[in-house]
Write a structure and sequence with these properties.
The protein is of the alpha+beta class. The chain has two domains: about 1-60; about 95-350, no CATH class. The protein has twelve helices and ten strands. The chain has helices spanning about 1-25, 30-60, 85-95, 100-115, 130-135, 135-140, 165-185, 200-205, 210-220, 255-270, 310-320, 325-340, and strands spanning about 75, 145, 155-160, 195, 230-235, 235-250, 275-285, 295, 300-305, 345-350. The strands form three sheets. It has a six-stranded antiparallel beta sheet. Strands 1-4 form a two-stranded antiparallel sheet. The radius of gyration is 24 Å and the shape is elongated.
Length: about 350
């Protein structure tokens, strides 16, 4: 009943607004171009509110919000000196616990997987799961060796023959890329009043850099990306995430305690390269125009975000492309290379230190 009352109120206000602007045009207070523009604004606002109300019922049922009004609550933005980071962190941490946020993140990850034309590592699995973050789970995979030392962080090593492990790591990177690609598609709206929005509101009506940052971190944290952070630059903020990536190392640089174990594996599996799983801070500014990497290969179309450049899946497909296709991708790589320096870290603040 409450939704019906709100919808009726919204329709009344939209009609009143249209009547006001029509009267102003008749009286010569505004010209035709302004009338058309103002009418468009009114209609867009009406659409946003109607969509929000339509979505609010399911969000109330799931416990994500208490009433439709929660979708329109705005937080007056603090200055950085008196707690902007803490304010954004609180919104992100609470939003990431919502079932609707997690469900939407999973949906976007699955869409990203389909665009890449890749099946999951195993049925009913989507990254990131504790496989990549939890040493005990990762150590159970064949060919993975965990080096534990007192007073130091566990180190994880694997070879290029550990296909399941490498694929899991790659998919975690590519899943993050799918979330980035979605958030970068949200309409960017300047907000001179300097307010922070609820993620649902931003997803429906757009927002500025603060709002997009909140949406990305909320989605990423909801599905298990543990190392999200905010990067502050003068007049700007964007999100980042700590990804597990592979760093190639020389066998002679292995800890002595596990060197013989790897030599044995080498003789058995004929591996060619050895990697260490490391944490990599990765800026993902959704306000930058980073293009998708799309190409055809063997009758299929593959679409990747720029994050895929760090994966072995992308490298293996790219190596099989003909020279003409590779050359056609050069302008895209140039665009990406030109934008990446803008994501250099000025002031990083981890959401969970």
């Amino acid at each position: 009943m409450l939704n019906a009352e709100i919808e009726s109120w919204v329709e009344t206000k939209i009609r009143e607004s249209q009547n006001i602007i029509s009267t102003m045009r008749k009286e010569g207070k505004v010209d035709e171009s302004f009338f058309v523009l103002a009418s468009s604004w009114i209609n867009t606002l009406g659409t946003v509110i109607r969509t929000s109300i339509a979505n609010s019922s399911s969000l109330i049922e799931s416990g994500d919000i208490n009433s439709p009004f929660d979708l329109f609550r705005l937080s007056k933005k603090q200055t950085r000196d008196v707690g902007l980071f803490e304010q954004m962190k609180d919104i992100i941490k609470s939003s990431s616990l919502r079932a609707s946020i997690q469900a939407f993140a999973v949906q976007q990850i699955e869409k990203g997987r389909q665009k890449c034309g890749l099946p999951p590592v195993k049925p009913n699995w989507f990254p990131p799961i504790d496989l990549v973050y939890d040493v005990s789970n990762f150590a159970e995979l064949p060919g993975v060796i965990v080096f534990r030392s007192k007073g130091a962080k566990d180190r994880i090593f694997l070879t290029n023959k550990d296909e399941v492990a490498m694929r899991a790591i790659d998919e975690c990177i590519m899943a993050c890329g799918a979330l980035y690609q979605y958030v970068s598609s949200i309409r960017q709206v300047p907000e001179p009043d300097e307010v922070l929005k609820d993620p649902h509101q931003t997803m429906l009506s757009g927002g500025d850099c603060d709002d997009l940052t909140i949406v990305f971190c909320s989605l990423a944290r909801s599905v298990g990306y543990r190392g999200t952070y905010l990067v502050f630059q003068p007049g700007h903020v964007f999100p980042g995430v700590v990804l597990k990536t592979l760093r190639e190392i020389n066998p002679s640089d292995l800890p002595r305690e596990i060197e013989s174990e790897f030599m044995k594996l080498r003789n058995e599996s004929k591996w060619e390269q050895i990697y260490e799983l490391v944490d990599t801070q990765t800026g993902v500014d959704p306000t930058l125009p980073l293009p998708l990497i799309t190409f055809d290969h063997e009758g299929e179309t593959f679409t990747f975000s720029f994050l895929a450049l760090q994966t072995h899946i992308f490298s293996s497909i790219y190596q099989k492309l003909n020279d003409q296709t590779k050359q056609s991708l050069d302008p895209i790589f140039d665009q990406i290379s030109a934008q990446i320096p803008k994501m250099r870290s000025n002031e990083i603040k981890m959401i969970d230190p």
